Amino acid sequence: MLYPWQIETWQRFTQQYEQQRVPHAVILTGVSGLGQLTLAEKMAMLVLCEQQDLIEPCGECHSCQLFLAGNHPDHTVISPEEDGKQIKIEQIRGLKQKQTLTANVSQWKTAILMPAEAMNINASNSLLKLLEEPQQNTFLILISSALAHLPITILSRCQKVPSSLPSADMAISWLKSEGDFIQTDIEKALTMAKSAPLTALSLLADGSLDYLEQVSRDFTALLQHKANPVQLAQQWQKYDLKLVMHYLQLRLKDRIANNSKQQNLRSNPQNWQIYDCIINTIKLLSSSNNINKVLLIEQFMVSVMDYPTSENTVLNH
Ligand SMILES: [Zn+2]
User: Fold this and answer.
1) Distance (Å, whole) CA 282 – CA 304
2) What are the distances in angstroms from CA 44 to CA 37, 39, 69, 227, 266?
3) Radius of gyration (Cα) for the chain, nearest Å?
4) pLDDT, averaged in runs of 10, over the chain (317 residues)
5) What is the H or E stretch that residue 241 is in?
6) Cα of 1 to ligand 1 centre, how many Å?
7) Ligand 1: centre distance to CA 259 (Å)
8) How far apart are the CA of 50 and the centre of ligand 1, in A?
9) How far is the CA of 271 from the centre of ligand 1 (A)?
10) How far away, in angstroms, is 155 Cα from ligand 1 center?
11) Residue 2 DSSP label
12) Residue 271: what are its φ and ψ, rounded to 5°?
């Protein structure tokens, strides 16, 4: 099932499909939290469906059944083998091999690669060759929310399919249909998720909305040197620390952007230094080493407090 904000994009794709103008490769762009994988899967399912005169996958043919069961032999999904890791060249080689074989069930072979920016340099180079010499009846769908991290050579060979954020009304009414949430919480979650509905939904559903507000207050206290890192680190270890760090990263990014827009405010190098601290902490949290999380968070807090107090770095709640 597509999300309501994807309907227009879907209709444009089905027009291409009807006119037999499906490109060899597309890249679905837009912020994360819009359900890009759902859209990509429906595109692949339609192309593979045996009922080729329809503009919706029939859901009943052998191909659709296999696809829905998650084991269609002509469809490949490529993602990092571990969360937060890179997509490796061996995975792209596997795809290449598969694309040279004859299709088993359908007349097409499809693949979804996400997130595309997770490819390491060797994997990108290997994919580029595949894009330069596409096999007939192959359809590759890349998904990325960080186009700046992808080589231009790859981007120029994929048709861009941008997804924009839904209107506030659409996002709110969709979230209301997903659970028993109150309007003020929905609005708060959407603000924190920068209007991405699926991100907002996970904030509402797992209770993290409450603690992110607390995190925001704690972080302001740290910046003003009014917090005790040892006590705070104990408190924060109960949270989803990656989510916390991504949230702080997002808020600080906004802060930096706003500061640079306001000519009367000096640009503040501390914001960038704290930003680097956040990035480093995310990297350490993502590494598979057995890290002491309390210690890591404590170190993060101490380094934030090492910077001189500044009004510019205080986050707005
Ligand atoms: Zn079908």
Assistant:
1) 15
2) 10, 9, 14, 51, 50
3) 22
4) 95 96 96 94 97 94 97 95 87 91 87 95 95 93 93 96 94 96 92 90 88 90 90 91 87 76 61 88 79 90 82 50
5) helix 241-261
6) 15
7) 52
8) 5
9) 52
10) 30
11) -
12) -55, -45
- Position 317 scores a pLDDT of 47
Closest of 89, 114, 111 to residue 100, by C-alpha: 111
Closest CA to 216 of 192, 240, 193, 238: 192
Map 140-178 to HEC letters.
EEEEECCHHHCCHHHHCCCEEEECCCCCHHHHHHHHHHH
Helix axes 197-205, 183-192, angle to 10 degrees: 120
For residue 289, the 8-state DSSP code is S
pTM: 0.78
Structure confidence by residue, pLDDT tens digits, 235-272: 999 998 988 998 898 888 877 777 766 654 455 778 88
- Provide the H-helix boundaries in 1-136: 7-18, 36-48, 62-68, 89-100, 121-132
Return d(Cα 60, Cα 303) in angstroms, integer: 58
Rounded to the nearest angstrom, the distance between the alpha carbon of 48 and the centre of ligand 1 is: 7
Six-digit token pair at 162? 């941008």
Report the candidate in 198, 154, 119 with the shortest Cα–Cα distance to residue 25: 154
* Short-list 145, 239, 159, 237, CA closest to 198: 145
Q: Would you say how long the chain is, in residues?
A: 317
Residue 121 has, within 13 A of its CA and on its CB side, a CA count of 0
What pLDDT score does 267 carry? 57
